[in-house]
Amino acid sequence: MATLRPTLITGGKVPADVTRDVCAPMERSPTALWWGAFLLASTALIVGVVAVTYQIAMGIGTWGLNRTVGWAFDITNFVFWVGIGHAGTLISAVLFLFRQKWRTSVNRSAEAMTLIAVVCAGLFPVIHMGRPWLAFWMAPYPNTRGSLWVNFKSPLLWDVFGISTYLLISAVFWYVGLLPDLATIRDRSKSPWRRRVAGILSLGWNGSARTWSRYETVYMLLAGLATPLVFSVHSIVSMDFATAVIPGWHTTIFPPYFVAGAIFSGLAMVLTLMIIGRKTMQLENYITVGHIESMCKLMLSMGCIVGLAYGTEFFIAAFSGNPYEQFVFLNRALGPFSWAYWTMVSCNVLVPQLLWFRFFRRNIAVVFVISIFVNIGMWFERFVIIVTSLHRDFLPSSWADYAPTSIEIATLAGSFGLFFTCFLLFCRFFPVIAMAEVKGVLEKPRRAPKQDSEQGDAA
Amino acid sequence: MQQRVITIALLIGLCFGLSLLASTMTNWRMPDNQQGYAPEQPIAYSHRLHAGELGIDCKFCHSAAELGRHAGIPSSDVCMKCHRYVTASYDVTQEKLRIADDEKKLLDEIEGKPEDQISAETMQALKDLQARADALKVPSSQLQKLYKFLALDEETMQPKEGATPQSIPWVRVHNLPDYACFNHQAHVAVGVTCQTCHGPVESMERVRQYATLSMGWCVNCHRDATRDGVNGHEVHAATDCTVCHH
Amino acid sequence: MTQLPDKSRTADAALHSLPVEQADASSPVSRRQFLEAAGFSLSLAAVSGCGRAPVETALPFPVQPAGVIPGQLQYFASTCAGCPTACGLLVGTRDGRPLKMEGLPEHPLSQGGLCAVGQALPIGLYDSHRLTGPLSAGESAEWATVDQEIIQVLGQIKEQRQAVRLVTPTITSPTLQAHVDAFLAQFENAKHIVLDAVSSSAILDAHEQTHSARVLPHYQLDKAQVLVSFGADFLGTWISPVEFTAAWSSRREPTEEHPQMSYHVQVESRMSLTGTNADTRFTIAPREQHLVLSRLAHEVASLAGRPLAVSPPLGGSLPDTEIASMARRLWEARGESLVLCDAQDVATQIVVNNLNHLLGAYGETLDVNRPSQQRQGNDRDLKQLIEELGADQVGALLVADVDLLHELAAQPALADAVRRVPLTISFAQREDEFASLAKFVCPDHHLLESWSDAEPISGLVSLAQPTLRPLGKTRSVLESLAAWSGQPATTYEALQQHWQQAIHPRRQAAAPAEFVEFWERALHDGFIEVAAVATTGGEFAAGAMEPPAQHSPSDDFSLLLYSKASMPDSRHAHNPWLQELPDPVSKVTWGNYVCVSSADAEKHSLEDGDIVKVSAGDGGSEIELPVLVQVGQHPGVLAIALAYGCKGTDRFAKVGPQWLESRPTVLENELVGKNAAGFVEFRDGARQYNRSGVTLTKTGRQRELATTQKYNSLEVPANIAPRGGLRRDVVQHTTLAAFAQDAHAGAPEQHHDNKTQLWPEDHPKSGHAWGMVVDLNKCTGCSACVVACQSENNIPVVGYDEVRRQREMHWMRIDRYYTGEGDAMLVDHQPMMCQHCDNAPCETVCPVLATVHSSEGLNEQVYNRCVGTRYCANNCPYKVRRFNWFKYEHDDSLQNLVLNPEVTVRSRGVMEKCSLCVQRIEAGKVKARSHGQPVADGAIQTACQQSCPANAIVFGDMNDTESKVHAAQENPRSYHVLEELNVRPSVSYLRVVKNREEKDRKGEPHIG
């Protein structure tokens, strides 16, 4: 099969090279570039921590919210990060089921990214509460209140279950995928403590035929389990809005629209990270232009779906004859927040159209820029949906403006800080490419990947 | 080998943790559960004596229970309704009664007898009784505190010059959080007995919190009451939140 | 307890040995004990909920006062002294703490209504900034020594025959008046000068000429079928707003059977609260008043067949046709028509009197035989006083209940003059500008601490009784005067004595002949009717009708000084509730501003918040304030509110949460607002509240106005309006003509079907179903309900910055919408509170069930369960939910005494909203149950309903088909706001009916 397709891994790598190349960043001491990035990220993280601490000490009032706009940056960030989290599972689970071999080079880091993004996302529902120390009331547990349960009608509760499930499954999926590589690390590592840690983590992987077959089965099963999550999680998130009465939120199109958007933003983030990663860690041969191109195709298709959704929203509003609905969309496009709306449209719909052209798809720099644009655009999509719908709803007397405070901006920065800090640490301590799987798609047809890897290890 | 070690280590840890927990489990209670709280009071007032042995009705002192939200701690002048006259402690009073009986016996004996025929012993006995009675005059230490708070002269039971009566700083036993409003009138009106919530107060020397006073405890009682009624007649004990939380 | 209260005979019971007696007001400890005596410790509200609850002591009374039930509300009939209007008052006290002010339902004038100022009294009582004892030369002193010194100085003054001047605002209390006279009688040259912040002396002077009696007539608006008001803001601040609102609204209730209501025309220069409620409204320049009135008089006179000698000149901004039709309607309704005017110009007022005479209003719609005594201000005397002070002819200057220097800011030299006066005494409760100069300050009681009486209308006397012991060592003015005139007496004795001598003899046949009974009835009812004092009024004399002066048009502005309904005079400047109460028209809180007409704003490119300098032509006083662009204001007119910039209001600098980005409520070395009294000038013997030749210059600086409403129209911005969706029908209108034909006129046609239900009907409301109806045709927007709600429900004051950020906490808000332009403009006031929807969008989305539906149709908010996701607020179509963004301070232990123990004090991070006063509902049910009876209709009243001067709010059980609320919902004018959402609110509104001709004017597509 590999022969029918263009080569996935260039540079005529043999399995030993794979091991060496991928393990290299873990074994050599970090580059100045890494340190710089880490410093930057962790500073942002600290800023965020300070901001959140202050906000929890003082109250939600330190955000720019008001009686009319009850959510803004907080939930925007939440939805944004959950969205980012989608690419990982998509790439590793869905593409796996579809036998997309090219995924092997990117799935590891995509999964890691998913994990971290979901953690970032999970932060916001907690800190956006007026009394975060009572967050555990969201959990249905027997109590002395005779007995007082949670409201199973509330989409916020669905979120709690949705997100936690997603986090759990993708963590397991990621970890199981890591097992063989951890074993490799164990066998290669010279320092005793690293050997011990890797040993414990690899759960005594011994590369025997049985281990491998078990591993394959489990991986396949998990992929099957994870696939529906790609669609369920963001559908649930979208219902936070779809089930409300607020015009602009009260829309049946939201679930598919959100899922597409999520995958869209996820891919963009993967691209951003990959393009940086392959450069800084000399992995150009593993993450080739081919990989980038095929992700671009995926991204383009998602971008088009999102664009279609924007159009549909307007059509439905006009078609519905509901003056409130119509007003909200006119207000989005022409009202006080039109700048946000048009930023969103240009970043998410117009810019990605470049990817129709092979030239741009294969031009790393262009793709990088586009991916950044999409990230920005998708953040603004959530901002537009939340703020512009809320700030002018039914009673004109209650219309209000919204402007973020320094605390909110710092919190946003902090969430990016958290994300990149974790990701950099991941690059430092874990194999960013699934060695075992990559070896499976190397150019030269082999007998069984297993022995190779062992040979590779022996080498 | 490696993982076996790990497994064993984990198991040991688990057992250890559980054993630690178990010991605390025995007297473990939800936070905020004040059940059994029985603080010391500024005056060692005994409900056992007054409500139990003397059988005074609860609402004699806690009259506000029928009239309003708070049962109210009786103002000191309510105590004075009796203790203007009853100044001694319970057993002293009993003793007094006994002396009075003996005295009466002796007096009956000597009644009608001419002076000279009364035996010296009898006279002596009478004198002794007098002495014993006098020895008992001292008011109970607890009541002295009451008089002190009220700034009363123990002899005359009249207010002292220039002294203002002070409130008695009773310690609240049944403390509901401020977001929970319990209305005594509503419950007394439908015939819920005091003991239902406050327990056998008439048998308590010092009052203690009998019930958990948790929300579940309230709500379940309300549910039962709506189902079974309160001693005979039907009631609608609402379980709407704002009945208590407003 | 919320039943029409069983007023106990006297407050003595409650006064007797309250714990506050042992609690020396200055020591916080004993005050905490006081709190606990009330069975309540708020400090615990925060702590409760973690670990072992802290030990709480409960202090019972040493000796229980008769009739006091722990924690139960008791009502005492009294009289409000927030202003000289003297409305009937019910003081709700709990454990000896006056907590809730309510209207006295039986009172002939206020008829159960009470204005925002009256509602806000309690927070003024528990104010740590009040003086707690007398001051001598700025140092706190003992009464004995102070009295000694004063008596000695007064003695010298008596010998040297120096002038003694006592300045007060209008005194409606006959007893106090008697003592003032008695006190002044000791001196040869003594005078009582009445200084009203907003004076009506011209009206009195005019009647002196036309009726040879210096009286203020008693206007009876309930008898007025046609009402033309020239600038008089009688629904807002003019003379007796609560009484007038009740009377006015009694004629604004057209029914299917009798589709009739009064016709009200307002001719004014600025947008007044009354103007917003008028059927027809015209704007003229202030100086045109005389002209327009003269022409109106001319028209009416010719209709009456008695044409006036001199015909007034033509011109002016009001077209003849309008004046003619106005005259016609007045004349057709003669005997039932009335002309009001706020002019401080005697000539103008004489024209008004002639008009009313021609219309036969005297004896019908206004009464000079039982005149009002609510405004006695005599500006001539005041002018004289200023001259005397300037010439150092005053030996002793006593000032009570008014800040002389604040009100007379126009006389800069006055302060030095006052310093030179040998003896200056202030009775101020807080240190004001005069008090800070006065040799002695003898602080008066707060109204709720002191006995008093009042005779607002000749023949209607009412009593005010104290409801708690004075918190400080203060003393009533009457007692002070009595002490200094040598025969000391307590106010109580003085009252009884005066009543026995002067009031009781005037009793009517029905009244008890025995004084004790007479007194006790008055005390129980709060008021009693006696014979009016015969006014020495002669026959009507037309008086000198001067022709109006001709004014040459000029580019200068004319400045109009007015007082806000939310802050009628400077005595209330220290009241945080009133400071944060949005002005009924501008919706601005915390301070005053320059109202500029839209035309001028465009001309000078001004926007809200631009700070401008306004200066009087004479190069005299000037002021720098932010601009408010006020639609419906006459071009070339500026308007500034009085009663701001009062000494000591910098105390509010730190009100509200203090954090990284918060802006102070009061800027460095500034006060709340600026004092505009400097522009008040003496012209033809009266203080003038308007003056021409004023210039306006931009400073280029900015100060955002803290307004509670950012968008003011029912119409969405035209540039983003969907087709046919320009106007939102949240307020529905019709005209009387249309209503007469079809009682349902004005209802928008229904496109939607409200039969289908998303949820199963599984919430049967078998017992009660509480609901409310608000009559938008009666509601004037006076905002009394807003403060009533704040006082009942422990709503915090959040300060300038939070209001600016649209985070005001009022549960009850009044939305104000402008529709249309010019004379055709419609202004709507819509009280908006939680609608208690049956299909409440907030309920489904709360993850922790903190907001749920009760079996009685209430939408319950459970503060202690709320985790603060704010999802409910987002999903509320009416945006009535309020979130505790911060922990709003409850640190002032004295001020905490104002909190209502029946309502939880919300902590930071929880949602709150209108509960339809559920605590009152529960109390009412318990009361009924303990009597074994069903809850009677009207037995439970919400705070907003109780105090509404216009009787616009009806609350009750919708399941009870006999109930008023049920009837009101059957009213053809009844509708639900946002009915199309099918959330099924329990609150409905009655459509507005305007008594105006069908005119298809621009901007009112939906009228008719």
Q: Characterize the largest beta sheet of chain B: strand count, sense, and whether it forms a barrel.
A: none
**Helix fraction of chain C?**
25-40%
The number of helical segments of chain B is 11
Q: How many DSSP E strands of chain B?
A: 1
Work out the oligomeric state of the chains in this entry: heterotrimer
Task: Tell me the distance between the termini of chain C.
Answer: 44 Å
Q: Most extensive interface, residues per chain?
A: A-C, 61 and 69 residues
Largest sheet of chain C: 7 strands, mixed
Describe the structure.
The complex is a heterotrimer of chains A (459), B (246) and C (1008). Chain A has helices at residues 15-27, 32-58, 73-97, 104-127, 155-188, 192-201, 209-242, 254-280, 289-320, 323-334, 338-350, 358-361, 364-391, 406-429, 435-440, 449-458. Chain A has 459 residues and is an all-alpha fold. Chain A starts with 14 loop residues before the first helix and ends with a helix. The model of chain A is unreliable at 446-459 (pLDDT under 50). By secondary structure, chain B is mostly helical. Chain B is built from eleven helices and one strand. In chain B, helix 5 packs antiparallel against helix 6 (120-135). Strand 1 of chain B pairs antiparallel with strand 1 (57-58) of chain C, so a sheet runs across the interface.
